[in-house]
Amino acid sequence: MSQHFHAAVWIDRHEARVFHFNADDAEHVVVHPGHPTRHIHHKAHSIGSGHTAEDQAFFHSVVEAVGSAGAVLIGGPANAKHELFKHIQRHAPQLLARIAAVETLDHPSDGELLAHARKYFRAADRMAPQRS
User: Fold this and answer.
1) Is residue 117 helix, strand or coil?
2) I need a labelling partner for 48 at 20 to 30 A (CA). Which of 22, 70, 82, 120 fits?
3) What string of H, E and C letters represents the secondary structure of 13-26?
4) CATH number, domain at 90?
5) CA-CA distance, 122 to 44, in Å (whole number)?
6) 9 and 18 in contact (C-beta within 8 Å)?
7) Residue 112 domain-assigned?
8) Cβ proximity of 54 and 87 under 8 Å
9) Is residue 34 in a domain?
10) Could you read off the pLDDT tens digit of each residue along the chain, which spans 132 residues?
11) Owning domain of residue 76
12) Which residues contact 32 (CB under 8 A, 6 or more apart)?
């Protein structure tokens, strides 16, 4: 991928879409988990929480896809965005300073996600200069 300062990640438990972009150009990659999770229902009087464990390999692949982006917006519809942020805190703390925000985003199309991210960073860039 060519170098773009900004990146946007949309993530759920089935995939992560990672966009590197500027005002005129964008590149993206889709990352899928090695073992997609299924929805697990917790039954009364059963052992366990009814939740699957976080897929650390999936989150690691997403962090690799983000690469050296200077500013990153993370979004998604449910908990995966927060799980990715926790993974970054534990396993890639050098990326923490580059996380601009973690937002709830339902299921935008690629174009909608890119438009939202460009609008977000257009406002954010007015507030702070870009640093590599």
Assistant:
1) helix
2) 82
3) CCCEEEEEECCCCE
4) 3.30.420.60
5) 49
6) yes
7) yes
8) yes
9) no
10) 557 899 999 999 999 999 999 988 999 999 999 876 555 555 555 555 555 556 899 999 999 999 999 999 999 998 999 999 999 999 999 999 999 999 999 999 999 999 999 999 998 877 665 555
11) 6-23+54-126
12) 14, 15, 58
